[in-house]
Amino acid sequence: MPSPATLHDVAKLAGVSYQTVSRVVNRSPNVSTRTMEKVNRAIADLNYQPNRAARSLVTGKSNAIHVLAFDIHNLRTLPAMQHGAYSQGYQLRLSGFQRNEDAVRDLRACLRDIAASQVDGMLLILPWVLVTESELSDLMGKIPYVVVGSSLGYGTNAVLVDQREGMRMAAQHLLDLGHRRIAAIQGIEHYYDAQLRQETLEKVLRKNGLELVASERGLFEMVSGYEAALRLLANGPDFTALVCANDEMALGAIRAIKSQGLRVPQDVSVIGFDDLPFAIFSDPPLTTIRQDFNALGTLGLQHLLSLIRTPDIAPHQRLLYPELIVRESTATLTSPTIKGRS
Amino acid sequence: MPSPATLHDVAKLAGVSYQTVSRVVNRSPNVSTRTMEKVNRAIADLNYQPNRAARSLVTGKSNAIHVLAFDIHNLRTLPAMQHGAYSQGYQLRLSGFQRNEDAVRDLRACLRDIAASQVDGMLLILPWVLVTESELSDLMGKIPYVVVGSSLGYGTNAVLVDQREGMRMAAQHLLDLGHRRIAAIQGIEHYYDAQLRQETLEKVLRKNGLELVASERGLFEMVSGYEAALRLLANGPDFTALVCANDEMALGAIRAIKSQGLRVPQDVSVIGFDDLPFAIFSDPPLTTIRQDFNALGTLGLQHLLSLIRTPDIAPHQRLLYPELIVRESTATLTSPTIKGRS
DNA sequence: ATAAAGTGTGCGAAGGTTCTCTTAATGTGC
DNA sequence: GCACATTAAGAGAACCTTCGCACACTTTAT
């Protein structure tokens, strides 16, 4: 078989018009059982598959969902999205781009391109605050979209984990353990999560009459956590607990702390954020805030699908709650050395 | 503007025929500079974007590459593929499926569906040996494809890292350190990498007049490495070195070893495979075999592109070489306890 | 028996491109 | 100033599908 079969081929074989074949394929009710059977047999014989491009041309739909993400590298929600889309009969398309000075221009170009390919909906992963709500809305035109993992405002459909609540739990956990001298390694500037986590940490401390002892910025990956921790330690370990904006940096930080002859958690308690797979196998196992990325991905896709099917739903956000996972990298404040100082 | 502009809209505005606009868009040489300018201005004014579906319908191409992968969860080659595709003007589509008893049927269904959407090429990530070379070739029809990370045979275009060489280096490293009693945690049965690594390990040992002391199977993730190590240790630590089929399992194994009051590397040397980001930050930092997943992804995409552009290239494979990264989880055999036993 | 409603099927058009062919306009050489 | 090659641009068909409309035929209600 050189070129794939078309509606016409099937029609000829089944002895009906090609429109009738179309009706069978699309499960139109107005077709008799007899002809349906004939047609189905012909379809099977020819191994007919509807041409997606032609279908898309006439319907203006594509049965595809586009995932646009910054930094695909740690796109932890992707598996759930893919699985959800596939099980609902949607194709998944993917594009991502880097964090650079042209990001907004890139985003614009990307969206133009995507708009031309008639996707039915988009999932946007924009950890970085780079467009306003109304800008995005303009760029997207009439394509339904859901922002996953961050929020641009109450007018945008979004699915996210309550970062404030997560950091509140982390901070409270350390306070409950008796820590008063707390330092932080925060995430990338302008990142939505990083900002919220840092803000909330400071707020909770302030409410308890405390301030951060010190704070360094990292890039959400291990090496930067290591380096940030070394910088913090350079001034002497004048803190008993270290809050890291994610698990990767926490892992780096733990290594830095150990390298200075200090112990985790006896000398410094360390808490992470995310609960990545390696967190439980770090030494010591990492206390952290779990975010359920699978749930996030699944929920994002569901939200988008409901938007596609019922376009005039009022914009709303779906919020997931994180969970404190206490392991062994945090402990009650006991070290006499540190106690003496505080 | 309710509906997006078409060739006809642009043509009307520019005062030319729509075919001329098409020529401008596709950079046909036979168009005068004057009209080209007029048309380009009109395109800009109307924010015209060619309709991909219509284009795809007539050309039979889609400017899209499909990545079909088992277990998207750890698709480390994806970022490079995405980046490569994007920079070459190709869209990336993604589908993945689970490892289950219906895998072959799923694969078949997936490929049928993909064939109908006229992708220009496919990248297949099939870590699991589940179809033969000729089966795959039949399923794919005339769509160009490259298998990434595994090899089905010499007739299939593939890009991969030399697993044998990697394991050879790992084994030799341990032998050079004086280890003679070596155990292994192997990967998932039927996985291409798992098989090759295990085979090679056994072969190298045999060549040196040795045999594996023990061997347990894991599932390529941390918990299973932990459990496999515990099983190995249950018979007493009658080995001085442990080869793990990947870093995740190595991390789990290290934890298990420590939990039994043994030290890494003093009592047991542990070596991993892959060199994932966390490997350098484990405690102790993990000696491992580095695979360059970015290079693998980039090369896979390049290979596919060259296939698309020059279809009658003879099938061939591109081989990357791994690298031994010596860190602190392996050491020379010194422990007298173990020495006494051997 | 007749009109109305319902069912199954065919016909033609449309959707936005690209491709081949044809025509008009321009330029070249003697 | 004429035949001829070359270049620029238009005309029409084709790609494969869905959708609205019309037609024929069967059933139901009056």
Layout of helices and strands:
2 copies of one chain form a homodimer.
Chain A: H1 7-14, H2 18-25, H3 33-46, H4 52-59, E1 64-70, H5 78-87, E2 91-97, H6 103-116, E3 121-125, H7 133-140, E4 145-148, E5 158-161, H8 163-176, E6 182-186, H9 192-207, E7 214-217, H10 222-234, E8 241-244, H11 247-259, E9 269-271, E10 288-290, H12 293-309, E11 317-320, E12 323-325, H13 336-341
Parallel strand pairs in A: 1-2, 1-3, 3-4, 4-5, 5-11, 6-7, 6-8, 8-9
Antiparallel strand pairs in A: 10-12
Helix pairs in contact in A: 1-2, 1-3, 5-12, 8-9, 10-11
The structure holds a DNA duplex (30 and 30 nucleotides).
Low-confidence blocks of residues of chain A: 337-342
Number of helices of chain A: 13
Summed over residues and divided by their number, the pLDDT of chain A gives a mean of: 91
Spatial separation of the terminal alpha carbons of chain A: 81 Å
- CATH fold title of the largest domain in chain A: Rossmann fold
> How many structural units, i.e. domains of chain A?
3
Instruction: Summarize the largest interface: chains and residue counts.
Output: A-B, 47 and 47 residues
